[in-house]
From TrEMBL:
Residues 5-90 form the Disease resistance N-terminal domain. Confers resistance to late blight (Phytophthora infestans) races carrying the avirulence gene Avr1. Resistance proteins guard the plant against pathogens that contain an appropriate avirulence protein via an indirect interaction with this avirulence protein. That triggers a defense system including the hypersensitive response, which restricts the pathogen growth. This is Uncharacterized protein. It comes from Tetracentron sinense (Spur-leaf). It comes from the Eukaryota. Residues 169-340 form the NB-ARC domain. GO terms for molecular function: ADP binding. Pfam families: LRR_14 (PF23598), NB-ARC (PF00931), Rx_N (PF18052), WHD_DRP (PF23559).
Amino acid sequence: MAEAVVSFVIEKLGDQLIQEAVSLYEVRDQVESIERELTRMQCFLKDADAKQKRDKRVKNWVRDIRDVAYDVEDIIDTFILKTTHQRKMRTKYCFLFFFKELVIRRQVAKEIEGIKIKIRDISASRTTYGIENIGGVEGTTSYVSDRLRERRRSSPHLDEPGVVGFNEDIKTLVARLLDQDTSRRCVISIVGMGGLGKTTLAKKVYNSNDVKRHFEICAWVYVSQEYRARELLHEMGKKVMGIGRESLAQMNKGDLEEKLSKILKKKRYLIVMDDIWKLQVWDDLKAVFPDGMNGSRVLFTTRIKDVALHADPRSPLHELHFLSDSESWELFSKRAFPMENDEIACIPELENLGRQIVARCGGLPLAIVILGGLLSRKEKTSSVWLRVLQSVSWQLTQDPDQLVEILALSYNDLPYYLKPCFLYFGLFPEDSEVPAGKLMLLWIAEGFVQQRDEESMEDVAEDLLEELIDRSMIQVAEKRFDGGIKTCRIHDLLRDLAISEGKECKFFDIAENMYGGTSTARTRRLTVHSNLSKYVSMSHSNPHLHSLLRISHTEESLRRDQWKFLCQSLKLLRVLDLECAIVRILPKEIGELIHLRYLGLRRTGLQRLPSSIGNLRNLQTLDMRSTKISRVPSEVWKMQQLRHLHLNKTSIMGRQPAHDSVRNLRTLSSVSIYGNSWIHDFLGKLTNLRKLGIEGYFMSQAEALSKSLVKLSSLRTLQLSGNDQILDPTLRLLLNHSKIYKFHLCGAIERLPHPQEFQPNLTKLSLEMSQLVQDPCVTLERLPNLRILRLLSNSYRGNEMVCSAGGFPKLHGLELEDLDKLEDWRVEEGAMPSLRRLVIQDCEVLKMLPEGLGDVITLRELLLLSMPDEFQARIREDDGDDWYKIQHIPSVVVT
């Protein structure tokens, strides 16, 4: 993590030398000198980060570098803070200003000189500690101990009894290996996080009798993180050609590759490559896997999707999932209780405690096996099992199979720019579903996301999240209708790892831990999961704190003086997210937090912003949803870095901003159409706006709205909520805007335009309160690229709806909600050929599901919510009249 800290500080210094050129002018040489020193030390840090786990000398050295990088960041931020304040006072106290600024410059110069001395001492201490070889050729070995690597070395001959939950996986993989319709050599990959049982599953498949009979050559090769291509070739040479170690040592790499390739080309082979971490493994070895078009296969196990797709992008991944509750209990019972006559002898009084212990494992087989094995050796009493339940995390760190180190392999394999993104998940409470959009904006505010050419930072942040998911570190909890990530989660054991690593490197701490006396005086980030006022009342002052997040949906009131304390004592904050911390008016001291990038005030009951809010010149995100603020003060437009402004049907009043002050704005939602002439004078200036939400009476400003929207060439998402009827000319212009892909319309309309008047690339359409009397499907099913359709409350007032054959060719998601007149819905054969998700909610008079739904074989998920009892009875499993229409759908949820 030290590599990440130093890298981000170096990048930040470079940015500040440009962005804060005026403030840093007098100390520019010193800052550049520090930047050069840190860059030199950066060269050693990747290897040092790896070695510190098993060498305390290296650990201390890394800690010193990390702390000095933090000190540099704080010194520069404090200097900018002080000089900014002094410049505000210049006109009032001219002489005093120059004197104080001179004092500040001398002070920072002295502090920077002290930092340079520290860095020289740290460099020299490599010799003192006896760790000069860090970063050298000999220093490239893994941090993983040889003992752990040997324990993880897999062999197909070691049978693992009592395996649970893999029956369907085994059938699927064996069928793919034996598939005679696919003659090309395929690489089939088993993908999942550490501890899910990828190697165990591969063994079961490899040792299948059908597989052994089908392939003429079978070989198992263990790869690992620290592989060497020549050693892997030798391993294959022994198993495929039966050549001894001495003979192999005499062959050069090219000859060995050629011999292996010739032998394998003549045979139908299966080679298992277990525990692959790097793309280069396939690049190094693919020459020895010829494609004789005879059905040969290579089977990978890996935690990283990119590794699998790199080897064979045409082959679908076989992704492992967590065990269900019943499977978890079965596996635990087999390990924890003795077997008698092939039946598990479970002691009834221990079952409740046992199930609680299993729940803490989150469906991860390795954790269940470890705890089950531990309890099989302990006394079968409630008191003993209760102690284990209360110390599950500690027990898992003590096990001889080193579960925590196995999970940490994935963390240590992350590139430096992903490590802080992963650790950030430790700030959220256990079992949280983290909103992906908010998470990415927090990453940007923290400085974890760097610009890449012309790509927006939001797009880069989304790539980082997807990379963590592809590396099996994070799971998708819920997807949006368009397939994007809506919420995500982290497994409890990986969260424990994030908390452990985060605390060790002072990356963050959890406030609740302090109440027992633990100090967080040097931590960079603090999260509060319950009582923020308790933290404030303890008068904790941490001048080094960069982020304060209150993550709780429970409201609590903060007094004005408590808000004032936060603003005055935490001057270096970049992130302040205080959702549900109730306050009527923010103190004017909020304007002193000039480094703030993210200010979250959602659900705070806030009624007014102070004029000092305009001092937050670095603010990127201001979230005021679900507050009582009725108008946007003109001071907001002084924030030239503002990218996302989330409001609550708020009016834009007062003086309209200049173009330069709003050039970065990408989100403006939801804002009231009322207020001066902002639609005419201001809206058209937002040329980088990607998401816009407006509500109010549109008729009076329809022309101005139409003209302004034409100028918004970057607009992708438009949400309109009208209190009056939206007339045909305005509607046609909106739906034909060439760049809008997502459109949410709430309000009455006369009719839908002709399909040719819609923007052809429209992918998502939501209609609400439209009060249409003609079947909307007649028009909408002819839109060629529509993927998501939501017909919400009172969008359609008719009693019949028909989806015609060939209609909705690309529709993936359909939602019908609160259509209180809809009685009959027909789906003709060939309609909606791509539908994957269907939601029907509160359609009180809908008689039954359409007959044609049974022909939609792509449908994977059906949600029936708040439907009448008679309707639910018809789709009851096995005996419901409509069950046959939906029995092919894998996931059916009825609530």
